[in-house]
């Protein structure tokens, strides 16, 4: 009896075929699971078969319009991400600058003006004391009417610490109450998400709102952290939220990750004013899958964001960053337990930071201002303590650059303060990174390197002045010449330190090049960056973000890490010797009750489908989530489906007895071409397959018979064992 005859005799509705009638929820993923890249790319290909748009355009004008709009939706999305991220970055910069100055005083002309803007319009500001004007009042002047003396110093000290504690408390409280994912830098998690991992809510609207607000508060508190890393997280939140406006990005996890790769480039673009560096950062550091079209779209989005930030002009100098610098001289070849209590941890670290930072002018100022001061190329118009030399000299004709001069008392005093600031920054940054507030590592790392570079630069400058006849200076450094630029040493030191911490190379050099605006310094920057990477790699292969990923147990398969051990697929696959047999589904021998029992008794993410338990000949693979949703949906929508109903994964359903309950056909949710390897495949090849295809699992066969399964988690555990690390540290699938 044919299947259609059985249906007619029993008067039951037509057998449901999920291949023809999609079920809501099928094809989606659970939280803390990895997507199937091959499946997602197939979905996108099925959505637009080759020539479909062209065929429809011949049928109707409306179809042509829809096809064109679909093709250009990616560029429109990039435009929106650039505009939104640039606007948010401008708001963060302005707010953080104002609130940082609020710790020291307030502007009488308008409390919303920061110190610099307050004194712009004053006619009583002198060149030597350009930061002092009657319109700006310190808290001591407002409260006790004194600007000098011990009482004024103590009052300013207390208010500085109090404001810092208030800002830090608000930041950690908002993060803890509304968006726990808003803490930290966000770059390690974004790297993991771009590799295919699902973290629901990490790029959501609440995370964006709280991260934006608390980033301003955390930076303003004076903690040793930067806003540049978190700006990448903010931009990716913008990208994820705007993806929901376009169906093809909303419903496809792989396409959405292409957008997030571009958003990461936007984040660096607005953080450093470096659109090209942002694109290279996304390509080199965070992206897992980066096709050519994503490269162009990333560049477009980064450019739009940079233009948006430039139009806002947050620093009032037509620059995108506070520490933009230009050099005019050539370089030469010489050249705990507290963590269990996050609010208390933040308050204790903030109090210690504020108390220790206030007495030293170089630690009291914001880190961005400090870097700007250290990068400064001393000229005629500079009144900085670092530029106060013993005797004045005339500049070389046609330029602002001054010849090398002996350091005065103020320069030596500044060197001592910088030496203490270096020690302070190193210790405080180590403690601060990882607290439950938004915290970036770019700026603190650059500050540490810039301080060390400036100290070295001034030391070499004085050596060249007093000992210009030494062999190392002879021939290129004559008396009265401008031989050494300490600011250049600071810039190279900043790049070297950041490169050592993050292991960035090409993207870092380009970012620093865009910051300085000159091609001339690319060679020393390249040399410093490569040297710092080699030295850091000699101490440990992991950068800070890779270490953070490993500590959190995320299933990230590092593309840069080599696998050179001679193991085979049979050594890694499950089940191992002595383990229970692999849990499988059969083509047509199981009931709904059997399948639901298998689901209840196991925690696996999916099940292989075989012809029978005896043959173990592989047919396909079914995800656990799709199976649960399909059975629940069939019970609601298809009459007659009960626990004793048989489930079929075959293309054709065999005839059923008249007394049998309605069967359930689930071939539509089965992956008919799961990726397989043989049991003797070398593991280095298997690892490469997982990396390049973005697989979440791979089935192991022998002469066509199913033997076992290898998941991404199995590979990471195997690599951890080989590296003598705890394999149970890999927490997620």
TrEMBL record:
GO terms for cellular component: early endosome; endosome membrane; Golgi apparatus; plasma membrane; synaptic vesicle. SUPFAM superfamilies: CBS-domain pair, Clc chloride channel. The keyword NADP does not apply. It is a multi-pass membrane protein. Its main location: membrane. It comes from the Eukaryota. This is Chloride channel protein. InterPro entries: CBS_dom, CBS_dom_sf, Cl-channel_core, ClC. PANTHER family: CHLORIDE CHANNEL PROTEIN, H(+)_CL(-) EXCHANGE TRANSPORTER 5. PROSITE patterns: CBS (PS51371). Residues 573-637, 670-727 form the CBS domain. Belongs to the chloride channel (TC 2.A.49) family. Keywords: Antiport, ATP-binding, CBS domain, Chloride, Endosome, Ion transport, Membrane, Nucleotide-binding, Repeat, Transmembrane, Transmembrane helix, Transport. It comes from Denticeps clupeoides.
